[in-house]
Design brief:
The complex is a heterodimer. By secondary structure, chain A is mostly beta strands. Chain A has no helices and eleven strands. Helix content of chain B is 0%, strand content 57%. In chain B, strands 2, 4, 5, 9, 10 and 11 form a six-stranded mixed beta sheet that branches. In chain B, strands 1-3-8-7-6 form a five-stranded antiparallel beta sheet, with no helix packed on it. Classes of the chains: A mainly beta, B mainly beta.
Chain lengths: 113, 112
């Protein structure tokens, strides 16, 4: 069974631009969560989608948004990029809620110049 | 607000040693606790998942325990190998969704 895939793997943007990252969960998984990892703040939860609905949201500004499609694939968008948005963005998938192991993708490394 | 702390932040041991990594959390109302491994620049690999009703889980040379009442978990690695060198992260889920709160990690180096 294929694992969680994320595209692109690396991205360089400039301040003020916007970016869209994509995550394809493991086949059959309906929950997709997004995390931001930085050296200073560690791993922080962004949001979770389940069956196309946002189920949980972390403490990030409205510039960070996401969505989930009917095939469970998810995208996250960051508008008006800031230098501090440079990070490794990880997505995780699981079959359902709370009781299941979450499987992480390899991440998208975003550099904002 | 749930806070997760991992001690020590870094650990260096000779090959073959048994070791314990610690994780503590402030809110004992958790659904589960997971231990992950992260290699440099890579994603996270799930090692063990302990449900809130369980006390421990084992996989190969790894054993994780959970004490909800004291807000602690430990990851025991037996007979460490250089390939175990990585950052180990614990994370807790405190609601019915899949929102995980992570600790800062323990960076482990196993020297040959």
């Amino acid at each position: 069974k294929a694992g969680v895939t994320q595209t692109p793997r690396y991205l360089i943007k400039t301040r003020g631009q916007q970016v869209t990252l994509s995550c394809s969960p493991i086949s059959g998984h309906r929950s997709v969560s997004w995390y931001q990892q930085t050296p200073g703040q560690g791993l922080q939860f962004l949001f979770e989608y389940f069956s196309e609905t946002q189920r949980n949201k972390g403490n990030f500004p409205g510039r960070f948004s996401g969505r989930q499609f009917s095939n469970s694939r998810s995208e996250m968008n960051v508008s008006t990029l800031e230098l501090g948005d440079s990070a490794l963005y990880l997505c995780a998938s699981s079959w359902d809620r709370g009781m299941e192991t979450q499987y992480f993708g390899p991440g998208t490394r975003l550099l904002v110049l | 607000k749930q806070e997760v702390t991992q001690i020590p932040a870094a650990l260096s041991v000779p090959e073959g040693e048994n070791l314990v990594l610690n994780c503590s959390f402030t809110d004992s109302a958790i659904y589960n606790l997971q231990w992950f491994r992260q290699d440099p620049g890579k994603g996270l690999t799930s090692l063990l998942l302990i449900q809130s009703s369980q006390r421990e889980q084992t996989s190969g040379r790894l054993n994780a325990s959970l004490d909800k009442s004291s807000g602690r978990s430990t990851l025991y690695i037996a007979a460490s190998q250089p390939g175990d060198s990585a950052t180990y992260l614990c994370a807790v889920a405190t609601n019915a969704g899949n929102m995980l709160t992570f600790g800062g990690g323990t960076r482990l180096m196993v020297k040959p």
